[in-house]
Amino acid sequence: MDTPSTPPAGALRARGFAFEEIARDGAARRGRLETPHGTIETPAFVGVGTQATVKGIDPDAVARTGTQVLFANTYHLYLRPGADLVEAHGGLHRFMGWSGPLFTDSGGFQVFSLGASIDHRVGKVANIFPEEGSESAVGGGPPGSVSLRRLRNRTSMVRVDEHGVRFTSHIDGSRHVFTPESSIAVQRALGADVVLAFDECTSPLHDEDYTRESAERTHRWAARCLAAFEAGGPRHAHDQALFGVVQGGAFEEPRRRSADVIAALPFSGVAIGGNLGRSHADMYRVLDWTVPALPESLPRHLLGIGDVPSILAAVARGVDTFDCVTPTRNARNGMALVRLDDDGVLQPRGRINLQNASHARAERPIEATCDCATCARFSRAYLRHLFKANESLGPQLVTIHNLRFMARLMREIRDAIEAGLFDAVVRRWLGDGVRARVR
Amino acid sequence: MDTPSTPPAGALRARGFAFEEIARDGAARRGRLETPHGTIETPAFVGVGTQATVKGIDPDAVARTGTQVLFANTYHLYLRPGADLVEAHGGLHRFMGWSGPLFTDSGGFQVFSLGASIDHRVGKVANIFPEEGSESAVGGGPPGSVSLRRLRNRTSMVRVDEHGVRFTSHIDGSRHVFTPESSIAVQRALGADVVLAFDECTSPLHDEDYTRESAERTHRWAARCLAAFEAGGPRHAHDQALFGVVQGGAFEEPRRRSADVIAALPFSGVAIGGNLGRSHADMYRVLDWTVPALPESLPRHLLGIGDVPSILAAVARGVDTFDCVTPTRNARNGMALVRLDDDGVLQPRGRINLQNASHARAERPIEATCDCATCARFSRAYLRHLFKANESLGPQLVTIHNLRFMARLMREIRDAIEAGLFDAVVRRWLGDGVRARVR
Question: Given an 8 Å threshold on Cβ–Cβ distance, is B396 in contact with A396?
């Protein structure tokens, strides 16, 4: 395998970046990731701003929820408005009015989930733990994600070969190609603080042989991404950090192999992506195969996961950051995250549907104990009215609550790790029975 | 005509209310309308929050635009979520999180514009000055307003008689009745600071005879509204002020007669409603027939008008407040209000369509001289991207700009009246040629 020989693996090398572990409790890490646009206290939840906006939320309001960092999508922004336009505006931070840290993905996820593989006719949206019933049981697909049935019936929109991926725009049917080099070029133009290597996202419908072959190709692409990243250099005043992506599906050998390969490459951080299996238990196994192989000195990101049990389990295994559309997407459907049930017991998957008639006259806020701008001012009945009247302020206010919910959860986790009490947080949220499955 | 005999006409009598004229320039008045929820510096633009929300805008963000007062719709809130629910929540202010002054209309406008008269099959939406071409030339219809063609083809949804109006819900087809008494009861339950008498809104397709008969009925309803208002009393901790509504269409004799009748009744303010004709010139004539007949001591509101030439012309004739959906509705379609053209000349009907390709790469804000939260942070290109990507942050950010535009316009008008320079403002905005038509 060709890898650039100059930089040492396992060190965060970009200018303006540093990762420091400031406390540890078991394998759980309390860290601090410095970026040119500010410091991310970890563990942290990364809010999703697919099209250079957290849907419906002013970036200042996003910041007021305590959200420290946002994730934007290379695939979407490449197609619309175009990376050159964003670059001409001085980059994504300035374009979208967000002065804090930003991640961009590589475009691979959307290429495979919004398109469909010709040979396998599935996308990463299959990664929804069907055995656990609900799509939102853990994580969830991207905005506009499609069902497996639709993927199977769709004519081919994606072709993969060693060079890269040919795909068809979901917007206008135009044809495009992403390669490791072009993905990096687009992400250099966008100018996020953290950018991701271009990978192929396999799904639970891929067998072990395909998953292994795909992961090996992703490793070759990883080396090409590193080379392109160094050759191109930053196009904005600040430097960027390139994270590698571990693939290998839910198969032990390919997943362990991928973790070893990505760990040995001179990335500034590592993201864990692809198919994590069909259940929480599968995902925890994948993390157990992966995380111990990763360099201690680098930040670790888990892609597309944002439910409370998964976050607690992943933090327990040493993951630092998470992104997921579920908290914001659910909010737009009136699903508000709540910590407590009516008896005051923590609910790790607690949420209420504000469209339910039971909230029609409820004067209480989503959560009496929440300090968000929504709970401070609005009743469940008012929020339900907004959804029933199809008023966009409803999704806006619930999104703010759910982002605040995630920020408070992560702060609780950080404080607990610092105090050496992370285990108590896990037990409080999940109880001993569930905890046994998490640990 | 039966009128309550106790209270004197022409005095603002509600507790917690006062109207003071603090400067005058010709007939233009610089006033101050005190309400239980704060003072409105007049002339003022009233933002429209039809369904207890300015569409897509957090009430705190509305306040930050300098918008002093909002207008909510009795018809909509009666149907959904119901006045009893709002009352149980402590009233509209608390329900919608707006602590400033609030107006509610009587429901009459929506009954006639969302329904259709059986005899005439038109609604007030006809009041769009068809001779001047564009629907948005002056004012505009309510949210969800329908074209005359659609109204003509619609089966009857509204029946008017002396008792009141039977109408069909636009939401679920259920049958309802509004009377002067029930409109006041609903508005007492909602608890806005300023409430309006229940009137019939005639349209340009009504002839003079029907318009005269309708106005006489509206006058009888006005007396019933006053009686019901006094008999019911406030249902919240604060008092409310009842404004009468002048009708009479664009016909001189009925309009003058209506102004005289309403002026003689013991209302706390007067609104000018109904059909104002088919052109700006028609509207100015209607104002010339109406305003001089109104008590000096009472605030005067012009219903449904919000374009710059009309506001300047109406202020010049002594109108104090205005409401209109156009600034916010246009914003949701990407139409941003601008003061200057590319040569720096004031444009009284200036607006740009942010969806136009010409803005695709424009790094400048909507207006370089605007101090709104949108212009301070976002380029036209970013706003265009949001509209093209169907992102609700686009309508939100442009609405904030347009509300700020209106607030700045009204402040400029207030400052000019205080300085005795209102004529210069009219000349600056409209030029001598247009000014001749305004004056």
Answer: yes
Q: Distance (Å, rounded) from C-alpha B301 to C-alpha B287?
A: 11
User: Which residues in chain B are closer than 8 Å to A378, comparing Cβ atoms?
Assistant: 97
Contacts of B391 (CB under 8 A, 6+ apart): A51, A53, A55, A56, B385
Residue A295, token pair as written in the block:
């360099």
Probe site for chain A from B359, B374, B385 (most A CB atoms < 10 A) = B385
Contact A393 B55 (CB under 8 A): yes
Active site residue B207: no
Beta-carbon separation of B379 and A95 below 8 A? yes
* Strand positions, DSSP E, A132-255: 158-160, 165-168, 175-178, 194-196, 241-246
CB contact under 8 A, B396 and A58: yes
In tens, the pLDDT along B213-255 reads: 999 999 999 999 999 999 999 999 999 999 999 999 999 999 9
From A25, A105, A282, A320, the catalytic residue: A105
Residue pLDDT, tens place only, B32-51: 999 999 999 999 999 999 99
Report the interhelical angle of A393-418 vs A380-388 (nearest 10°). Answer: 140
Domain boundaries, chain B: 18-330, 333-438
The SS3 call for residue A340 is strand
Beta-bridge partner residues of A244: A270
Indicate the length of chain B as a whole number: 439
pLDDT digits (tens, 9 = 90+) for B109-166: 888 877 643 344 333 333 334 445 333 333 333 333 334 444 444 445 789 999 999 9
A383-405 residue pLDDT tens: 999 999 999 999 999 999 999 99
B378 touches chain A (CB under 8 A): yes
Give the separation between CA B403 and CA B373, rounded to whole angstroms: 11
Q: What was the pLDDT predicted at A115? A: 61
State yes or no: pLDDT of B24 exceeds 80. Answer: yes
CATH topology of domain B18-330: TIM Barrel (3.20.20)
Q: Helices in B277-352 by DSSP H: which ranges?
A: 280-290, 308-316, 326-332
Q: Cβ(B77)–Cβ(B190) under 8 Å? A: yes
Element (H, E) at B380: helix B380-388
Cα B92 to Cα B210: distance, rounded to the nearest angstrom = 36
Q: Is B84 a catalytic residue?
A: no
Catalytic residue, candidates A25, A199, A307, A323: A323
Minimum Cα–Cα distance from A361: chain B residue: B85
Which residues on B lie below 8 Å from A393 (Cβ)? 53, 55-58
Query: CB distance B53–A393 less than 8 Å?
Result: yes
CA distance B245 to A6: 81
| DSSP, res A424 | H
- The rounded distance, in Å, linking the Cα atoms of A438 and A315 is 11
Residues in Cβ contact with A415 at an 8 Å cutoff, skipping those fewer than 6 apart: none
